[in-house]
Design a protein that fits this description.
There is one protein chain. With about 425 residues, the protein is mainly beta. It folds into 2 domains: about 150 residues, Rossmann fold, CATH 3.40.50.10070; about 260 residues, 6 Propeller (Neuraminidase), CATH 2.120.10.30. Helix content is about 10%, strand content about 45%. The protein has 4 helices and 32 strands. The chain is globular.
Length: about 425
């Protein structure tokens, strides 16, 4: 993964089309951004203002690019307009804003429309206008679309805000698998009842997971609104699935007594091929490289759980981690150059780290916040989703790839684990 939130804001000459955030350098300063609440242009849109506002605010706060200014500090008149000629930019300069984002909502029948304008406060001019429409029942999706427009304006990359995540929620009856928006909202059940764990989101947004529905752990494939179907069930214990980036293959672990080996198969579970052969040792938690040619995985063949790499045909096995005595849950960045993983430290707490594939350089991402586990990268590799006990129960958090800006997802209280970030 290329350095991201080591960005410098470059001032542009007056004739430039838009500001640019250079994703380079070692000193990052989040861009101060003012984000007044959306205004409604008609009575029909008023009901959606709060929902759009909450989602848009969270997206821009959580992405790590911006310092979203406290609205209590605003000096501008609340009735100020949304075009450059109607804005008193000095009021925004005086509160430290470099960028100003204003949003209007309107509704026509069942269609909700959002018009977003982004202004350079220093230059006093409009730099971006984005318009999006959704079904009126999808107000949060409208916010995510608008947030993606802002994100792409500054980074020239597709934002992660319309992607989906899967996770496990512990209930009185067991553990259930859900698929939700990237921020954990609009969660829909994929599999409930009994014990369902370790979900993985496919490129088509189906979800593979391990389930004890029939006694031994087996792999199932589920979709929202449909009954899950068996994916890999061979009479032995099968767990820990990952999809190749093109969605054509899966990798998983098969346990038999004291031994666990890795397999690769077609995405429908057919054509399984054994990749490892290490009698009396455990191999688990496969994670595909972005090009689909390699796997990161966990093995205790060296005496303790460590991260290893191998080709997709099982050849050229190499140990990657040498620090620590308990490393697990590798997640390969979509950018290809780092792998995030969970490690147990000297105080028996679990924390998150990344390791550079080429150099083996390790970077610590979390510390002194109880247990932090199970990292999963956003589709663009800029953010990491993970589970943490820092608030008491296991909850889902997001941070930038380098460990900055750690914030909780705005979910209802519950016990949430093993998140996976899909497209």
């Amino acid at each position: 993964m290329k350095p991201f939130l080591a960005a410098l804001v470059i001032a542009l000459p007056a004739f430039a089309q838009q500001p640019v955030i250079e994703i380079s350098g070692a000193n990052f300063r989040p861009m101060p951004l003012a984000l007044p609440a959306p205004v409604s242009q008609d009575d029909g849109a008023k009901a959606s203002v709060a929902e759009v506002d909450a989602a848009l605010l969270f997206d821009l706060q959580a992405c790590g690019l911006f310092q979203v200014l406290d609205r209590k500090s605003y000096l501008a008149d609340s009735k100020e307009g949304v075009t450059a000629s109607t804005i008193t930019f000095q009021n925004w300069l005086n509160v430290g804003a470099e960028t100003l984002v204003k949003t209007q909502l309107s509704r026509d029948g069942d269609t909700l429309r959002g018009d977003l304008r982004l202004f350079s406060v220093n230059a006093g001019r409009e730099e971006l206008k984005a318009s999006e429409s959704v079904s009126a029942k999808d107000a949060r999706r409208l916010a995510h679309k608008l947030a993606n427009a802002v994100y792409k304006h500054f980074t020239k990359e597709t934002g992660p805000f319309e992607s989906r995540i899967s996770f496990v929620r512990k209930t009185a009856g067991g553990k259930d698998v859900y698929l939700a928006d990237w921020d954990g909202k609009n969660a829909s059940p994929v599999s409930t009842g009994n014990i369902n764990v370790l979900p993985a989101v496919a490129p088509d947004r189906s979800v593979a997971f391990t389930s004890y529905k029939r006694g031994k752990p087996e792999l199932f494939l589920g979709r929202v609104g449909q009954d899950p179907t068996p994916l890999v069930a061979n009479g032995r214990m099968v767990a820990g699935v990952d999809f190749s980036p093109d969605g054509k293959r899966i990798a998983y672990s098969v346990s038999d007594g004291e031994n666990a080996e890795l397999y690769v198969a077609n995405a429908d579970g057919t054509g399984g091929q054994k990749l490892t052969d290490t009698k009396y040792f455990l191999n688990s938690s496969p994670s595909f490289s972005p090009d689909g040619k390699k796997l990161a995985f966990v093995s205790n063949r060296g005496g303790s759980p460590q991260i290893y790499l191998m080709n997709i045909d099982g050849s050229d096995v190499k140990r990657l981690t040498f620090q620590g005595n308990y490393n697990q849950t590798p997640a390969w960045s979509p950018r290809g150059d780092v792998i995030a993983f969970t490690a147990r430290d000297e105080r028996n707490a679990f924390d998150l780290f990344t390791i550079e594939v080429a150099s083996g350089k390790v970077k610590r991402l979390t510390q002194d916040t109880k247990n932090n586990e199970e990292p999963s990268f956003s589709p663009n590799g800029r953010l990491i989703l993970f589970s943490s006990t820092r608030a008491g129960t296991k909850s889902l958090y997001v941070m930038t790839f380098d460990g900055n800006n750690q914030v909780a997802l705005p979910m209802d209280k519950g016990d949430f684990t093993t998140p996976d970030w899909g497209p």
